[in-house]
């Protein structure tokens, strides 16, 4: 099986959503780069794809005929190849469903050396379609869903805090109103006493 030509058994339609490295500059793959394991190589390319703006598809792998170990792995853009022209079932005209594949050639090939390390032996950088990078650098549905979940939990937490603050504020305002009523009653008592005193003074003045 020649993975450089894209031949052989393939793990098709498997799109990888893996949390990898955070922050830092985008490191572009290059032929000759070495990794300690297949998993490290795969995560590196997935992180690169996430930062650049495309989704990774697991393409093919070559296994040892002796022990079944993976000896080479090819990954690529999820828009590689072309989907069959399937017909939709909605509407009287049954229009073809839009295809997610556009014949993109972007790909990378890792091979395991005798030393056990995984080496990049082929890398095609260019895509034939626009790349989409969000403000947070997420280009996969899994990343977006996780971020949405985190933001939802944070929003719920903030709502709980707002509810607690609102309750405290209402209690404070109620207390202020009660104290204002008490103060108003005391002021009224003072006013009444002053009026009574003034009336007594006037009464005494008439009797003189």
UniProtKB/TrEMBL annotation:
Pfam families, alphabetized: FAR1
Residues in coiled coil: 148-207
Start and end residues of each FAR1 domain: 43-132
Keywords: Coiled coil
Protein name: FAR1 domain-containing protein
Positions of region (Disordered): 77-100
Keyword Coiled coil applies: yes
